[in-house]
Amino acid sequence: MPLNRKLASIAVTVITVLALLTVSITILNYLGYAYPVEGRSMLPTIREGDLVFIVPASTRDVQVGQIVVYHRGGICIIHRVIEKIVSDNLVLLKTKGDNNPVPDPVLVSDSMLNGVVVVHLPYLGFLAMSPYRYILAVLLGLCVIYELFYERREKRPVK
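Request: output the structure for the sequence above.
Response:
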């Protein structure tokens, strides 16, 4: 097998694996278990482009110091719990980004809470963020076209 063909084969394999990872991350994000980090408020603990995985939880289950994912106004926020406020039967969470000077202006209720972060993986969140996932899709399409073209060219009978 010529060197160019080996390199092309390796490139196609790498791009295919990245594309499968992107699809998996997108599905987990859609289901609410994985979130790409798109800000710098949790530096240095969590960086932009990291991927966090959560387990669903209620505000009662969350402990001070844990990192949670919650939504407010259609935006997902990943911040640390700095205080747990219990009033009657209601439990609210006060959160703050590690890199932010002040706590978040809104207390987190059960209806806002997505879950508690259990794992974060550096850089994998980029695969689920625009424009990276679109670039990867284009590269995968080009790989498929290359494979089809190369295979046909190789199988063509010699005259």
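Residues 1-31+129-159 form one domain.
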